[in-house]
Each structure stands twice: as C-alpha cells, then as structure tokens.
Structure to design on (516 residues):
C-alpha cells in the first residue's frame, strides 16, 4: 500500500469512527432530553444501584486521598509560610484550593478510575455477550436502558464525593497545622473567612459536570467495545484515559472562562 | 402463502466486507425456515440483517411488508423474538427476571400475571426449576433455553433462533423441536432457525436455504427432502449424506 492510500484509509476510518461517536453522543442527548417528556422511561432502580456503587462504594478511597492531599498541601505550604511567620494562612490557601480546584478534580479522577472504568467494562462485556443486541431487538435502546441511569448516577455521585474529599482534606490540613502549633480553632476560622457559599457551589457544579463527562465517556466506550478478546480491556483503558483528558481540558477551559468573565474573582484573603 | 420475510438480491455483510452476494428467498407466514451452511459462512450475518441489527449492503429486504428504517424499527422489533447464538441473557438478572423484563416494559399486565406468563414460558422450555438461578450458574444449553423463553414472552410473529440445539443433549434437543412444532401449530408463529442437526431439520423444517462461504452466496433452496434427493451440488450432497459440514 502506498503512503497516500494508507493515509486515506486511516482518515476514512477515523472519520467513520468520529461519526459513530457523534451519533452515540447525539442519541444519548436526545434520549436524555426525551426523559423530560416521559420521565417514567427512566430506569430508577438501575440509577440507584449505580449511584450507590459510585458514591458509597467510592467513599473510602475518596476520603483517604482527600485527607492525604490536605496533609501534603498543608505540609508543603506551611514550611514556606512559616519562614514569614504566617503559617496560619495555610488554612485560607487550603480552603480555596480544595473548594475551587483540587476537590472536584481529584474526585473526578478517582471516579474515572473506579466508576468510569467499571461502566465501560460492564457495558463492554454486555456488548461482547450480545446482550446489547438483545436489548435492541427487544425494542429497548441500550442508550436509554443502560447509559442514562449510569450517567445520571455519575452526575449525582460527584457533588457528594467532592464534599467529602474537601472536608477530609481540611481535616488533614488541620491536623498538620495543629502539630505545627496552630490551634484548630484558628485553622477553622481561616477556612470560614476565606470560603464563600458561591465558591463551594462553583466547585460542586464543576464536579457534577466532570461526573457527566466521566459517565458519558465510560458508557460510550462500553457501547463501542469490539467483540474481541481484548475489546473490553481496551475500552476500559480508553474510558479512563479520555475521562482524565476531558476533565483536565474542561477544567482549563473553565478557568479561562471564569477569568475572562471575571466570575468568582471577588475572593479576598 | 403470504410471505412474511422477503429478500431480493440482498448483499449481506458488514461495512466494507460483503460476506454473501445476491441472496434471494422468502419465508412464508407460519413456516419453519432453516438457514444452513458451514461455520463462518454468514448465517448469523444474514440473521442480523433480518432482525434489523445491521443494514443490508444491497438489494431489498422486507419484514412483514416493511423495510428496516428509523420509522419502522419499533414496530418491527415488536413483531420479532430472537435467541442469540450465545443466549445473551442479562447477566445481572435471574432467568425469571430475564423473561419478566420484556413483559414489564411492553405489557399492561400486573405483577402476578407477568410472573405467571414468565413461568409459563420457562416451563415450555423445561427451565422452570432454574427460574431463580443467575445465568452464570447454569449451563450453556440451559442459557439458550432460557433465552428462548425470553424471546417467547411477548408472543412474537417471527421467532429467530441461532443454533438453538447446539450444546443440547439429543433428548432436550428433540423436546425443543417438539416445542417448535407445537408453537407453530398453536400460534401460527413463523420460525427462522440456524441449525446443523439433520434429524432436527427433517423433523421441523418446511424449507431450508443453504449458504457457502467459498462461493459467497446461497447455493440451495427448497424442502429438506428436495435438497437431499435432487440437489446436484456436491456441497449440499455431502452435507445431507454425511450429516456433517466443516466450513
Ligand atoms: N463484525 C464483523 N465485521 C466484519 N466481518 C465479520 C464480522 N462478524 C463476522 N464477520 C465475518 O463474517 C463471516 C460470517 O460470520 P457469521 O458469524 O455470519 O458465520 P456463521 O455462519 O454464523 O458461523 P457459525 O456457524 O460459526 O456461527 C465470517 O467470515 C466472519 O469473519
Ligand atoms: Mg453464527
């Protein structure tokens, strides 16, 4: 095969692939919107099960990582701020960092690793076993049946997990500062003066958006699984990788947008 | 008799790969039609076209007078029941729940009526004892039978069975043939069956179509008796005389 032919074929393949992805995404959006008209079509039981697995099941690891993140951040910043004698400001820094950025991001990455991958594996295995075909020919579109409840569960689980990660991080920071001689009362006062309800909501909204991305990417990777022996493994990997890419890129875009529009810039230390 | 499935010069396959060319046959309402051929010759491929999962690559296909398309999909799906080659039971549900699912989604029956209907279907395939087992806890043959029960639940007009008797012992397999004949008698259901079992073919088939991988097409069409006695084709003769075909 000549170079041109190879490039041509690759391009055609890639375009067909992209079209399929878009079609799936479109179908998800349409059937998501049609739930507004026919809410009874929503598989509430599946949603609850997926939500419980994502939130309750992911709580220990989220708390653990959040706590350690708080400990590490507090340690690193305290050692610098201490030389200026202002280590009490660690609490302000920690609160802002956790509520605005790190809480949602770290939780979303954990969700991608635990829940996004399991969506891809679960749906991918069903695809390989012809279960998705069986659903289709029964007149139950897999997108409505499998994807929507899972995506909804990921969206709903994110704010819950994020709040817990953030609180665990603050507790970690408080303990470190306590050891460095900053009383816990002073720490929490710093936290409460530097956080606003708006800031917390902004972080949680961002978390929910990341949940949407992780859920959609995981489920769609599952639906597109190839019927080969390594198909499920590959979809799982691509679900996690693309989720993390999507989270990071979206967060970057949001940072730029909020900066340009000047939203949330009224934070005072 | 009135045809329920019609194929005219259909090219079967997947985008970029034609597996069978220029296939023409029709299935009459109420008949048992068998798809025959060696492994990998495209029987499942043809079936996937018939049940609307993959679009045909050329020609014309109608099921119950309609072509597969976005507008006809839902109506056509309600007319068909499918048993996939692997059974395709939902792994997270028990056998009974698998059969209940279509009833919950598409009927107005109450819970006890649904349960009764589901158990009736499971009994028909002699799977009532395993109703509360998960698919992972039962054998391959049992999974297929449970899948047949699920396909029967909504009383489809056409039932598609992909190798129903593969992996079944001769007694269960023969019981399955009896079930097909009984359903045909009672409900006027149409059957499209992929099978290699000669005894089963002679027992249940009204007509059969045979495909060949090497020639990318249909090589014979007729009653099993006709195929066995009058076909000139060496491949067909070999199949019916040895009873075995290796694709
Ligand atoms: N998704 C696909 N894309 C491209 N080619 C495929 C695909 N699935 C199957 N094929 C090819 O189509 C051909 C026919 O496959 P099919 O599954 O229809 O055979 P079959 O007659 O059902 O065989 P068996 O008796 O083993 O089930 C095979 O050569 C296979 O390689
Ligand atoms: Mg097959």
């Amino acid at each position: 095969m000549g170079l041109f032919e190879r490039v041509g074929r690759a391009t055609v393949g890639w375009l067909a692939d992209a079209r399929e992805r878009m079609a799936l995404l479109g179908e998800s959006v349409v059937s998501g919107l049609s739930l507004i008209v026919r809410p009874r079509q929503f598989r509430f039981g599946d949603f609850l099960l997926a939500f419980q697995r994502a939130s309750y099941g992911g709580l220990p690891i989220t708390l653990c990582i959040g706590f350690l993140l708080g400990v590490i951040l507090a340690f690193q910043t305290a050692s610098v701020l201490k030389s200026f004698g202002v280590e009490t400001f660690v609490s302000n820094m920690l609160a802002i960092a956790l509520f605005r950025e790190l809480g949602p991001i770290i939780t979303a990455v954990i969700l991608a690793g635990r829940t996004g991958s399991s969506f891809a594996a679960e749906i991918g295995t069903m695809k390989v076993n012809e279960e998705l075909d069986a659903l289709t020919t029964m007149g139950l579109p897999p997108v409505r049946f499998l994807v929507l409840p899972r995506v909804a569960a990921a969206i709903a689980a994110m704010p819950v997990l994020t709040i817990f990660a953030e609180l665990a991080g603050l507790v970690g920071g408080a303990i470190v500062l306590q050891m460095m001689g900053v009383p816990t009362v002073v720490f929490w006062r710093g936290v409460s003066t530097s956080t606003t309800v708006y800031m917390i909501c902004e972080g949680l909204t961002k978390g929910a958006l990341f949940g949407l991305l992780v859920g959609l990417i995981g489920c769609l990777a599952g639906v597109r699984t190839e019927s080969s022996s390594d198909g499920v493994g590959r979809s799982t990997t691509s679900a996690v990788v693309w989720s993390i890419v999507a989270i990071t890129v979206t967060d970057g875009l949001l940072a730029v947008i909020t900066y340009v529009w000047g939203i949330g810039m009224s934070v005072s230390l | 008799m009135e045809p329920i499935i019609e194929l005219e010069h259909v090219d079967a396959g997947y985008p970029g790969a034609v597996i069978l060319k220029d296939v023409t046959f029709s299935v009459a309402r109420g008949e048992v039609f068998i798809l025959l051929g060696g492994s990998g010759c495209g029987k499942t491929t043809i079936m996937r076209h018939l049940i609307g999962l993959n679009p045909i690559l050329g020609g014309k296909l109608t099921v119950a007078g309609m072509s597969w398309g976005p507008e006809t999909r839902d109506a056509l799906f309600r007319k068909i029941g499918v048993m996939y080659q692997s059974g395709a039971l939902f792994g997270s549900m028990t056998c009974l729940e698998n059969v209940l699912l279509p009833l919950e989604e598409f009927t107005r029956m109450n819970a006890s009526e649904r349960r009764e209907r589901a158990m009736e279907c499971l009994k028909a395939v002699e799977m009532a004892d395993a109703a509360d087992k998960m698919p992972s806890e039962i054998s391959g043959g049992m999974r297929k039978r449970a899948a047949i029960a699920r396909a029967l639940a909504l009383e489809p007009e056409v039932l598609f069975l992909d190798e129903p008797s593969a992996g079944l012992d001769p007694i269960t397999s023969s019981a399955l043939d009896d079930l097909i004949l009984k359903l045909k008698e009672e409900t006027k259901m149409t059957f499209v069956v992929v099978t290699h079992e000669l005894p089963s073919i002679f027992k249940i088939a009204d007509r059969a179509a045979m495909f060949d991988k090497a020639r990318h097409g249909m090589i014979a069409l007729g009653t099993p008796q006709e195929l066995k006695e009058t076909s000139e084709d060496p491949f067909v003769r070999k199949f019916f005389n040895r009873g075995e075909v290796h694709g």
About this structure: Residues 90-128 of chain A form the longest helix (39 residues). Chain A touches chain B through 13 residues (CB under 8 Å).
